[in-house]
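Researcher: Here's the sequence for the chain we discussed earlier.
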Amino acid sequence: MSYEIKCPCCGSDVEMFDICEVCGWQNSGPNEKEDDVKGPNKMSLKEAKEAYKRGEKIY
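Model: Thanks. This is the structure I predict for it:
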């Protein structure tokens, strides 16, 4: 059974703890904070959102 959420970075539908196919963000679960760097992500959620808006790669 899959559990879909909205990607916290770009808003696309994605399974929890999966990599978003649209922006490349690795979801760290429902308690993700804007300034934390968690899991395989090398930038914070806040930095990733800004990069996505500018059309830059999220890592």
